[in-house]
Each structure stands twice: as C-alpha cells, then as structure tokens.
C-alpha cells in the first residue's frame, strides 16, 4: 500500500445515470482522503462500476473486471451487473466485493476493508459540487432512480427498482452548485424523466423563496432560473410533455426532447408494453413543432423485435418518414437475460434484423442530411467542447454530447475559442451528422 494517500483506480461503464453514480462514489472517496489515480499500476485497489443492460454490456463489464484483476489484483465491483453476483463470481471469483447500483455505502465499506482511509482535512479540499467525470462546462443531473414501467425488452426495474424521485429542491440546489462551479449545460437524466415526482404525489418544496412542484414542469421552471442550457433526456411520451413545449419556445430550456419511441407498429408496441397510439404521436409532434419550430427530437428504435413482420417494419419506416426526427439511433433486437420478451414467439432471423436495420438507418441518414442542409446559412449558438488544431469542436442546441452531431468551427482556434465558450457560428456546410461553420461570418 502507498505510503502517502491510499490510491483508488476507477473504471466507469454504462449510461449517463451510471456516470452520475460514479461521480458520487468518487466524490465520497475524495472526501475521505483517497487519491484517484488513472492507471492500474498506481492504484492500491480498483473499483469497476458495471453495466448489465444488454449482452454486449455484460461482456464489456466482465472483460473490464478481468482486466482490472489481471493488472491490479484487488477489484471491487458495483453497478447494474452487481445485481447478478453469481454471474460475476462465476467468471471472476477473486473480486473483493460485489454491490448493485446506487449502493454507495457498500462500495465505501469494501474500500475501507481493503484500504483504510487516511483523511487529512487540511489538504482534502473539494468543490461543493463534488467530483465530475464530464468536462467542466457540462454535467448530468440525475433526478430519480428506477422505473415503474415493465417494458418487455428491459430489465432496468429488476436492477434499479421502482421509481424514486429526488426532492425538487435538492435537485435545484445541486444544479445551483454546478452552475457556481462553471457548468454551462445541464443534461437531465433518469430512467423516465416524464414520471418525475409521481411517487411523491408531486410534493411542493421551496427553493430561493419560491415553491416548486416535484414534477417535470416545476423542475424545468426552476432550472430556467439558472440561465444555463437545460437538456431533457429519456422523456416518456406522456400527455403532460405538452406542458414543457411552451417553456422551450420561450427559451427557458433547450428546444430538445429525447423520447425513446422504440417502434411505430401498434402491434409491436403492445408486445413491447409501450404506448401504441402512433397517429396521436404524429399529431403531437406536429403540434409541438407548431409551438416551437426550433424543436429537436431525438429517439431510439428497436428493429427485429420478436414477431415483427414485414408490414410492422414498413409501418416503422412510414412513421420515420412522416415524423422527420432530427436524431435517431436504432438497434437490432437481441435477447436480454431476464427480459420477458425472450419468451415471445416468432423470433426474427438475424440476417433479417440486420437487413432491416440497414434500411432503417439509410432512410434516417437521408432525413438527417436534408434537415441539416436546411441550416446552411443560418447562425447557430454553439457551446465549444474542444480545440483540435485549427478547429473548435462544439455543439448546437440540437446536439447532446456523445450521442448527437457536432459543429466544426473552421476558424475556432484563430478566434481564440476555448472549451466552455459560447459563440455564434454561421453554418457554411453540412453532412448527414455534422455542421461546419465560421465564427462571426457576416451575411452577404
């Protein structure tokens, strides 16, 4: 063990919700005097925060645990795959401890057992917003844990439990601290952002001398007071989503909705245990855009779900064509251990899944290309993420980090831009994913 501060290595896998869990564990480690190190060799013990949602994520998590064991030897496992300790023990019997998601106390207990803390209050100083794994200028803001839905392809409730909402004043205070720490953009995440507060009957809490309901609209109204970019993710298409669109039109939160529609065939949606009123969904999208013309909608879909016929898939393509969604991700269905969809009949052959996925993405690429072309000549507000040679790489209001497109600012370095800067960029070109532009380019 190190002679100075005990040193912990950390591997964080999975979704933004898991990333927030990692940030909380890391913050507690630093509060207790542990030093976080970037290599196995420098660490006295390694914590691996796992993902277990789909088979590829399970494989990645088991591989990461194995690598940490081989390189370091002392490994503590937490996260979603921790809900299946027998699977981890079968592959890696020598791990020190296994705990599930959000079980921060068990992680710290295991760290204490392997590596007693040496706290020095005079040097172990932390910003009041804790440690972050994202760049300084944006942060994920997790508003709840768990989910009340039982989608047939998903095992999240078995891993993270039913919905538990954080009190709205607690969330707003955390956002306020992040803003003081230099954050310019908040990415609101949960398993189901639309359901926020239903478990606490939308209880009112006070923040800055004003009462806010613990519900999505109240949260957005409060966050708008901070003057940051606020971006909503994982929004389930409940009717009260309509209440948020005027806030977007007024510039209070970003005109951006991440709604995982998953499919567009009412029959397949029923098998998925998802909302199935596709015609009403299209009407709502049109109504949202009438209120907020700049609205960006991103979504995810599953193709090749058990029982999906050619007709079902054509309905999905038709929806995609009519909805003209801005950003879309798609996946070929694969069985997830523990999901009820595994028992459904009429599995789609793998080659058919891949052919449908290719057709789906080809259509979406055409839609995305055409929509981005319409932005050529416009001026977009861009948040700079990085400088790469002469380029500044940033994102517009329509782009979430890591999952959407980028804005490449050709003269960004010459303009003196830095990560975290906002700038106005005239768009000069585009492709199917990204925009290209110049700072301060005057219109002819």
TrEMBL record:
Pfam families: Radical_SAM, TRAM_2, UPF0004
EC category: transferase
SMART domains listed in its UniProt record: Elp3
Cellular location(s): Cytoplasm
Gene3D superfamilies given in the database record: Methylthiotransferase, N-terminal domain, Nucleic acid-binding proteins, tm_1862 like domain
Secretion signal, residue range per the UniProt entry: none
Residues that bind [4Fe-4S] cluster 1: 15, 51, 80
Major place of residence: cytoplasm
Enzymatic reactions: L-aspartate(89)-[ribosomal protein uS12]-hydrogen + (sulfur carrier)-SH + AH2 + 2 S-adenosyl-L-methionine = 3-methylsulfanyl-L-aspartate(89)-[ribosomal protein uS12]-hydrogen + (sulfur carrier)-H + 5'-deoxyadenosine + L-methionine + A + S-adenosyl-L-homocysteine + 2 H(+)
Cofactor requirements of the protein: [4Fe-4S] cluster
Sequence ranges assigned to domain Radical SAM core in this UniProt record: 133-370
GO biological process, one term: tRNA modification
Binding site for [4Fe-4S] cluster 2: 147, 151, 154
Organism superkingdom: Bacteria
InterPro entries linked to this entry: Elp3/MiaA/NifB-like_rSAM, Methylthiotransferase, Methylthiotransferase_CS, Methylthiotransferase_N, Methylthiotransferase_N_sf, NA-bd_OB-fold, Ribosomal_uS12_MeSTrfase_RimO, rSAM
GO cellular component: cytosol; ribosome
Role, per record: Catalyzes the methylthiolation of an aspartic acid residue of ribosomal protein uS12.
UniProt similarity note: Belongs to the methylthiotransferase family. RimO subfamily.
Record protein name field: Ribosomal protein uS12 methylthiotransferase RimO
Organism: Arenimonas terrae
